[in-house]
């Protein structure tokens, strides 16, 4: 059996085996954590641990109910066994203050990355007003540490310069290729690589940040495009921007000027680490995409109000934004504003639908493959623009229409289907088809060094099973376009 044929067997065996990569943390808080007051003794806390088989408890303020800290079984045993701690000591004396905390409506991916970066095992979930929602641990967030990622995470954390980061990034890509060929599901693999790439980006920013005197204002490095969708593969360039909150609107220009040298240096360092500069210059080092929170909102407002071709093109990149490093809150506020504003922008949504319907899936009425007129790669199909795009566009469109925060294509399809109460089997077929196309793309990216051929496949190079599977995926693309046409016209 050839490598291509064996890849097809793996592909067929993994269809339907994917899991959601961007579930909201709230859905993972399945049980109420043990809550103890600051004056509760270690003895009483240990009793509850033994009775309920727990390894951590949240220390709360008895009046406000707000979480004050975290007390872990491991820490208690260490204190009692090696530091002379008394069983009658109050937990407040030995608790971990200011534990890692996220809002319950944040995506699970953000928690995975933060916990890996900080090396912690527990995370507190809170509402926006600080009230406790739940406590989750690494077992609730399986994914990022799979596939032997521990060593890679350690190497990223240990890097002290950009050269070391480049070596770590290369190790991530090589390990990702091994996992792909071993049969890891595409959605899982992309989330795995996106998580590690986030850690690389965060460490690069930390290294560059130490070399610059940045303004003392809230700011955040944002990801767009495939990185924003958690769909980075092995041929990806940079799509990023920077959001800052100036002390006053009139100070935006001076604050931007202070950030630009830093942002440009980060873009350079990421390029050195294997993340190519964006050909369209959509990077934080470009003054056009290093903006205040109000300037970013103004851009999105203008795009929603005037759905010109440029605005619709920007939607395919910028509307997939998510925070990567820095202060998440301003970016989350932008997403919250967009989730309320986009559903009302009917002209924009119809323009976006019309754009997505402007190209048809490459399969004819008799089931034959159709090809574009690319002279350099005749008799090939671009699996990005003539395959994965149909699912990405529809998912983005439905997410904007229904105020869905998720940015990944699969999670957008799942959440939109739940809102629309669609048949779960139909949605599963769409997701499987999208992931199948992504799998073919990744296989091609690993098989060629030509950057212009990384998404192109010649059906004649596929075995019969592969060709049949690809045709079925394109038929699902036709169906998803029919749903968009029915909902938005065109």
Characteristics of this structure?
52% helix, four-stranded mixed β-sheet, Four Helix Bundle (Hemerythrin (Met), subunit A), 490 residues, 10% strand, Beta Polymerase, domain 2, alpha/beta, CBS-domain
Q: Can you walk through the features of this model?
A:
This protein has 490 residues and is an alpha/beta fold. It has three domains: 25-111 and 123-141, CBS-domain (Roll), CATH 3.10.580; 149-319, Beta Polymerase, domain 2, CATH 3.30.460.10; 350-488, Four Helix Bundle (Hemerythrin (Met), subunit A). It has 18 helices and 13 strands. It has helices at 3-14, 42-52, 73-82, 91-94, 108-118, 149-158, 162-181, 186-209, 225-228, 252-272, 293-305, 309-318, 328-341, 346-356, 384-401, 409-420, 424-447, 464-488; strands at residues 35-36, 56-60, 67-72, 96-97, 101-103, 122-126, 132-137, 219-223, 240-244, 290-292, 322-326, 381-382, 456-457. Mean pLDDT is 89; it is low at 1-22.
């Amino acid at each position: 059996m050839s490598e291509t044929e064996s890849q097809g067997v793996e592909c067929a065996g993994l269809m339907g085996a994917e899991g959601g990569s961007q579930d909201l943390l709230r859905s993972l808080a399945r049980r109420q954590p043990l809550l103890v007051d600051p004056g509760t003794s270690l003895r009483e806390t240990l009793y509850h641990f033994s009775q309920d088989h727990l390894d951590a408890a949240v220390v709360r303020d008895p009046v406000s109910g707000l979480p004050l800290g975290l007390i872990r079984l491991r820490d208690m045993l260490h204190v009692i066994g090696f530091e002379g701690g008394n069983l009658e000591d109050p937990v407040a004396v030995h608790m971990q203050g200011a534990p890692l905390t996220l809002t319950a409506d944040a995506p699970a991916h953000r928690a995975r990355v933060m916990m890996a970066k900080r090396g912690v095992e527990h995370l507190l979930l809170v509402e926006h007003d600080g009230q406790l929602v739940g406590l989750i641990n690494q077992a609730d967030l399986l994914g990022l540490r799979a596939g032997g990622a521990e060593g890679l995470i350690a190497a990223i954390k240990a890097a002290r310069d950009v050269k070391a980061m480049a070596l770590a990034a290369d190790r991530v890509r090589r390990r990702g290729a091994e996992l792909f060929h071993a049969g890891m599901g595409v959605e899982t693999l992309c989330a795995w690589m996106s998580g590690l790439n986030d850690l690389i980006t965060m460490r690069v920013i930390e290294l560059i940040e130490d070399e610059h005197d940045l303004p003392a204002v809230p700011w955040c490095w944002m990801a767009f495009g495939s990185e924003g969708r958690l769909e980075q593969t092995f041929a990806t360039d940079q799509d990023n921007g920077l959001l800052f909150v100036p002390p006053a609107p009139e100070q935006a220009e001076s604050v931007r000027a202070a950030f630009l040298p830093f942002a440009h240096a980060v873009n350079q360092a990421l390029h050195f680490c294997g993340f190519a500069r964006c050909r369209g210059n959509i990077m934080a080092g470009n003054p056009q995409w290093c903006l205040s929170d109000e300037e970013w909102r103004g851009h999105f407002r203008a795009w929603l109000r005037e759905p010109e071709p440029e605005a619709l093109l920007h939607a395919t990149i910028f509307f997939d934004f998510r925070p990567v490093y820095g202060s998440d809150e301003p970016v989350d506020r932008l997403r919250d504003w967009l989730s309320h504003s986009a559903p009302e922008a009917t002209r924009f949504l119809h323009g976006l639908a019309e754009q997505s319907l402007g190209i048809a899936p490459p399969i004819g009425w008799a089931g034959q493959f159709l090809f574009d007129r690319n002279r350099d790669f005749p008799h090939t199909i671009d699996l990005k623009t003539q395959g994965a795009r149909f699912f990405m566009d529809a998912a983005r469109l439905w997410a904007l229409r229904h105020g869905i925060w998720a940015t990944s294509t699969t999670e957008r399809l799942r959440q939109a289907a739940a809102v629309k109460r669609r048949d779960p089997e139909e949605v599963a077929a769409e997701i499987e088809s999208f992931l199948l196309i992504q799998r073919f793309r990744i296989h091609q990216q690993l098989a060629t060094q030509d950057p212009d051929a990384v998404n192109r496949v010649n059906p004649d190079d596929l075995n019969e099973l592969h060709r049949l599977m690809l045709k079925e995926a394109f038929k699902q693309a036709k169906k998803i376009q029919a749903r968009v046409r029915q909902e938005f016209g065109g």
